[in-house]
Recover the amino acids of this structure.
């Protein structure tokens, strides 16, 4: 019994000892980086959107769709080239939370599991993160529709 | 002025994501799911539309905007077409983005090979 207790104490001491050396996430610096980079991505998207509306005579909805598609394709191309990870290391949530992160989350596991073939490797892993996101998002949209139907 | 609103709205949403990453044990995929669902829930409660009017792309480009688009599509389709709209509205409103992500993503993943982080 006594032995057991000292062991527990030792474990606690070790935990504290380890904590001294594990790097603490720099919450403030990371937050500022995420705020600035995330804001810049959104502002750039807005700039492209207004430019499309002005020069291409697109409606607002069409321009929004084009911007979304452009953001997704850019993020996926950067992922393929291996540059997105470098960006994400700096931006943190700044480029994961915008739609670019969703696009990256599809391509990056798909490339990783390329060796397993074009169907069960690339085809399946494309959805290893995007799958849950789509499942939850689409289910929520059905719930939204049902609530709307009950309320009218 | 518009750009400042867009910048601040988008930045704040990303800041919330970064705080969730750093201060909780949530992993990135879970945060993506939480953001998409919370966007849809806020739209059901009628709270996301004002944010979109204020922040424009700042509110639609981050992932809650994706959930917002799904929920909004379903709700609009229900008022137009009845109960079937609950099943068709969500995906059809986000069809372009999802299809582009799947199609282009598949091609990119086939063309490029794995690389280590530089």
């Amino acid at each position: 019994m006594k032995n057991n207790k000292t062991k527990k104490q030792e474990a606690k001491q070790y935990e504290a000892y380890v904590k001294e050396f594990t790097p603490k996430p720099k919450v403030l610096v990371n937050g500022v980086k995420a705020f600035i980079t995330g804001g810049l991505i959104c502002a750039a998207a807005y700039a492209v959107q207004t430019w499309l509306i002005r020069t291409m005579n697109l409606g607002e909805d069409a321009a929004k769709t084009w911007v979304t598609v452009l953001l997704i394709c850019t993020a996926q191309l950067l992922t393929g080239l291996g540059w997105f990870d470098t960006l994400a290391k700096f931006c943190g949530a700044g480029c994961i939370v915008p739609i670019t992160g969703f696009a990256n989350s599809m391509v990056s596991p798909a490339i990783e599991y390329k060796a397993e073939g074009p169907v069960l490797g690339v085809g399946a892993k494309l959805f290893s993160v995007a799958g849950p996101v789509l499942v939850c998002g689409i289910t929520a949209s059905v719930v939204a529709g049902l609530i709307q139907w009950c309320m009218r | 002025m518009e750009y400042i609103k867009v910048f601040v709205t988008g930045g704040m949403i990303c800041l919330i994501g970064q705080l969730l990453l750093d201060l909780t044990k949530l992993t990135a995929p879970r945060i993506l799911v939480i953001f998409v669902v919370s966007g849809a829930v806020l739209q059901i409660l009628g709270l996301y539309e004002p944010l979109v009017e204020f922040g424009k792309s700042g509110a639609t480009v981050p992932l809650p905007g994706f959930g917002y688009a799904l929920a909004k599509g379903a709700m609009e389709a229900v008022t137009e077409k009845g109960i079937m709209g609950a099943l068709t509205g969500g995906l059809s409103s986000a069809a372009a983005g999802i299809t582009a992500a799947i199609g282009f993503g598949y091609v990119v993943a086939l063309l490029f090979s794995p690389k280590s982080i530089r």
Observations:
- The mean pLDDT of chain B is 92.
